[in-house]
Every structure is written in C-alpha cells, then in structure tokens.
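Good morning,

Attaching, inline, the backbone tokens for the sequence recovery test we're adding to the shared suite. The designed sequence is right after.
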C-alpha cells in the first residue's frame, strides 16, 4: 500500500489515556483515538490535553490514528 493513501488532519487533544494514547477532536463532530508515532516517543515530545497535533488516519479505519507532529503555537 503506498504511503499517499494516508489521510493527514489536524486536531486538538482532548484527553490523555494510558499507553501513550490520546483522544483527539478533529472537527466539531469527530473524535478519534490516536497513538504516538515512534519518532515522537523516541524524542520524548510531551503531549498534553489542549495541544494541537497532526494525525494520520488510515483509509480503512477512520476512528483510529497516529500522532505524527505537535503543532507549535
């Protein structure tokens, strides 16, 4: 499967869950369950509720995603 099949969206972290999982609100109606990518874990980037993040969703399951970037600002 090519990498360009992934869907990248921005959202806001609403809740921190165990095992580096987060609930991310991507728009007014949708909330996804997201995990941290390996690069974020390796560089010890801290994500707290209220942070804006970039989430990559798989086209197969739009309710789960992977946090790939913490947006500054």
């Amino acid at each position: 499967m090519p990498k360009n099949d992934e869907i990248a969206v921005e959202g806001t972290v609403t809740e921190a869950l165990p095992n580096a999982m987060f609930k991310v609100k991507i728009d007014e109606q949708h909330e996804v369950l997201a995990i941290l990518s390996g690069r974020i874990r390796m560089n010890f980037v801290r994500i707290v509720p209220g942070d804006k993040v970039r989430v990559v969703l798989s086209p197969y399951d739009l309710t789960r995603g992977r946090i790939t970037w913490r947006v500054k600002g």
